[in-house]
Amino acid sequence: MIALQQVTKKYINKTALKDVSITFEAGKITGIVGENGSGKSTTLKLIAGLLQPSSGNVLVDEERAGRRISSKVAYMSELESIYSFFTVGDAVDFYESQFEDFDRSQAEEILTFMNLEHPQKVKHLSKGNRGRLKMTLTLARHAPYILLDEPFSGLDPMVRNSIVKGLIKFIDLDKQALIITTHEIKEIEPILDDVIAIKQGSILGREEVEDLRGNGHSVVDWLEQVYGGGSLEYNSSRTIR
Ligand SMILES: Nc1ncnc2c1ncn2[C@@H]1O[C@H](COP(=O)(O)OP(=O)(O)OP(=O)(O)O)[C@@H](O)[C@H]1O
């Protein structure tokens, strides 16, 4: 389990997260939704151990998040993170050399699924194919926690669709949990177990998607209500886990 306990994260002139307490359970797909600058990436970077909290604790399977436990977390940045002078094959070799849990044969299977080939040069790939490659390299790891920061950003619906299909096919929810930040909630709504709404560094709410559906609502209905202006009649007074 991942636990953020009363976490505040301050940058020099900005408080990005304010006293956030939340958990993420193994075996679930959780979406974190919020407008630009609300603290989504900061949350993932804290879990990945790339940032340290200003106060509070970030625990991954009861250990403090940091370099020592990074093997438990596969983090995909929203930024371009693969050297442009690499070929697709070089990128796979590089990831294999960096991560003990990297599964070469799974990587090859995902490459085929994503229609990517070893000799292709990263700098010549379309944005969509660079997104598919980034996803391939992350999903080829057997890390128990997979964190994807804005995997759909700037990608067209066909590419988004192939990425969602890749997630369903290559994530093993008996052994892995997935946390996705996104603005594109409609694409991933069908595969989400729960959704967290964040605004200006605070968690506004969290819901199980099945509970919402049971009440005849979509995630989008709920988000409209949480962010104000919506008229969803739904009791969402449950405690945030
Ligand atoms: N390294 C940094 N130094 C200073 N401020 C930062 C830094 N990184 C993020 N911030 C600020 O912290 C706040 C939260 O940023 P964060 O990137 O976590 O938001 P986000 O929800 O992921 O946004 P987006 O959807 O645009 O990616 C923003 O106001 C951002 O400008």
What descriptors fit this protein?
8 helices; binds adenosine-5'-triphosphate; 241 residues; alpha/beta; disordered C terminus; single chain; 10 strands; Rossmann fold
Report the principal-axis shape.
globular
Which ions and ligands are bound to the chains? adenosine-5'-triphosphate
Distance between the termini: 12 Å
CATH superfamily: P-loop containing nucleotide triphosphate hydrolases
CATH architecture annotation = 3-Layer(aba) Sandwich
Integer count of domains: 1
Low-confidence stretches: 231-240
Strand segment tally: 10
**Secondary structure category:** alpha/beta
Supply Rg. 18 Å
Largest sheet: 6 strands, mixed
What pattern of helices and strands is seen along the backbone?
EEEHEEEHHHEHEHEEHH
Number of helices: 8
Q: Fraction of residues in helices? A: 25-40%
Write down the overall mean pLDDT.
88
Write out the strand line-up for the largest beta sheet, numbering strands in chain order.
6-7-8-3-9-10
List the helices and strands and how they pair.
Elements: E1 2-11, E2 14-24, E3 29-33, H1 40-48, E4 55-60, E5 63-64, E6 73-76, H2 88-98, H3 104-113, H4 127-139, E7 145-149, H5 157-170, E8 177-182, H6 185-188, E9 194-199, E10 202-208, H7 209-214, H8 219-226
Parallel strand pairs: 3-8, 3-9, 6-7, 7-8
Antiparallel strand pairs: 1-2, 1-4, 4-5, 9-10
Helix pairs in contact: 3-4, 4-5
